[in-house]
């Protein structure tokens, strides 16, 4: 009789909300829909009977040109999730200590535990900010092999300034995995993407699921120095990014003006949503956003979350907090109207 390995017996999988909801503001996608003609043109000449480029060369080049990084330092993957999985399974060994922050993106600890790493969580300050000195001290005192965190943070929407991240990376011997999935909505000047070659211990992750509005094709990138990049390309599957994702990714990433317009529209929507939520006066605290979503505290978070679901509006609930992604003007207005109903009741 086959028995599952002990590590999976009591493992809780990541379970996204399923079902049909008119308004989805729960998974931080972009509300911008790319022109179907543009997508059709991108895939019109691909050959489905052939394996894809194993290194997604043209897609990587388009990404590198857009963000000003050397393509030789970039590895493409099936979203950041695959890249996180490769890092956890291949750059670290069973029993190695990994430092995650709480709250932060749950998949960091998920993949670390899946590959039998020793996950250590450091809670953020009461105001949800990151204590860099505490992280440095913990890593250097506990022989931690890897630290992974998002900047700006999912779900808090806050960011750690570049100077502090650089100080952190230079102060520890551990591998530092910096997930910049939402950096496009903050400030590229705060990014370390173009400086990865200066560090022997830094990997920067970026995704096409947020600002590039391509969550459906599962495309992400890892940037690191030559040594780490070679290791990632060795460990990944030979043809990990399919031809359709490569073609669409290359076409959309090559449209620099379209990318900038998309980012600007999402930032404007997030700013309007932040203002509207603040004026409702139903939240104890609303955190200043550096992402495409709003993070708000209320003791009635669960009740509000459930009420919104009845109204066919999906957001994310984290205990006493709600994370609400910016949507179209119509979606944001429907949300605000529903929250006004909650307030009256």
Which properties best describe this structure?
345 residues; Aspartate Aminotransferase, domain 1; Aspartate Aminotransferase, domain 2; 2 domains; 7-stranded mixed beta sheet; 4-stranded antiparallel beta sheet; 12 helices; 13 strands; 16% strand
Report the principal-axis shape: globular
The count of domains is 2
Which percent range fits the helix content?
Answer: 40-55%
CATH topology of the largest domain: Aspartate Aminotransferase, domain 2
- CATH architectural label of the largest domain: 3-Layer(aba) Sandwich
Task: State mean pLDDT (0 to 100 scale).
Answer: 96
Q: Give the class-level CATH name of the largest domain.
A: Alpha Beta
The main sheet comes to:
7 strands, mixed
The number of helical runs is 12
Give the class from helix and strand content and strand pairing. alpha/beta
Radius of gyration using CA atoms only:
20 Å
Uncertain regions: pLDDT < 50 for 5+ in a row?
none
What does this entry look like structurally?
This protein has 345 residues and is of the alpha/beta class. It folds into two domains: 6-30 and 257-344, Alpha-Beta Complex (Aspartate Aminotransferase, domain 1); 36-254, Aspartate Aminotransferase, domain 2, CATH 3.40.640.10. Helix content is 40%, strand content 16%. The protein contains twelve helices and 13 strands. A seven-stranded mixed sheet has the order 2-8-7-6-5-3-4, sandwiched between helices. Strands 9-10-13-12 form a four-stranded antiparallel sheet, with helices on one face. The protein starts with 5 loop residues before the first helix and ends with a helix. The relative contact order is 0.17.
